[in-house]
Specification:
alpha/beta; Rossmann fold; two-stranded antiparallel sheet; 35% helix
């Protein structure tokens, strides 16, 4: 995967914003949200943070190939480290859905860790937002998100929610609050039994 210069700059800026806010506590007004995304979409993710950052506390430093923790043979250890090092004290995970987000191994791992309770892990709310570049309204979701986005008779009945790109900050804030509340009101609906991705899938 080759990133454009603009995408690398956007990633650097997202890292700086995340580190600047890492000690800011989750509050009833602004929840701390971990943004899971494919690196090629970094410019759009940065635009999202710059547009709506007053409505949540962003954490956008994800797992990368150069992290030695991913070489461990102990999968529970890897998931615990993803929680403690990357998701940290976030309470909601927002999956930023671009054209090929579904194909990324580390996105799947981040979602898995978000839905897992353990010694280190605490449950995160889960929601997904379609990025503008994912033009089709039926853009492909990461399978683990799809497992938790269930609709019946035009009603959402699963643990997670999938939204079009927001037009208003207040709308986004309501979505985040719903995901936050779901940790205690819809946690019985979580499906996290799918095997974790071992490699990135091919995406045209």
């Amino acid at each position: 995967m080759t990133l454009t210069y603009q995408a690398r700059l956007a990633q650097t800026r997202l890292t700086a914003i995340s580190r600047q806010l890492e000690h800011k506590a989750d509050s009833q007004v602004r929840h701390k949200c971990f943004l899971s995304y494919h690196a090629v979409d970094a410019e759009e993710v940065l635009s999202f943070v710059e547009s709506f950052g007053d409505y949540f506390i962003p954490r956008a430093i994800g797992v990368s190939e150069d992290d030695p923790v991913i070489e461990s043979e102990d999968s529970d250890y890897i998931m615990d480290r993803i929680r403690s090092k990357y998701l940290a004290d976030s309470t909601v995970t927002i999956v930023m859905v671009g054209k090929c987000t579904w194909a990324r191994k580390f996105v799947d791992w981040e979602i898995y860790s978000s839905l897992r309770r353990g010694k280190v892990n605490r449950l995160n709310g889960l929601m997904a937002i379609q990025l503008p570049s994912a033009k089709s309204p039926s853009a492909k979701l990461p399978p683990r998100v799809q497992d938790n986005v269930t609709r019946e008779d035009a009603k959402d009945i699963g643990y997670a929610r999938y939204y079009a790109y927001p037009n208003r900050g207040g709308t986004l804030q309501n979505w985040i609050q719903d995901a936050f509340d779901a940790r205690s009101t819809r946690d019985h609906l979580i499906y996290n039994s799918r095997a974790r991705k071992k490699i990135n899938s091919s995406c045209p």
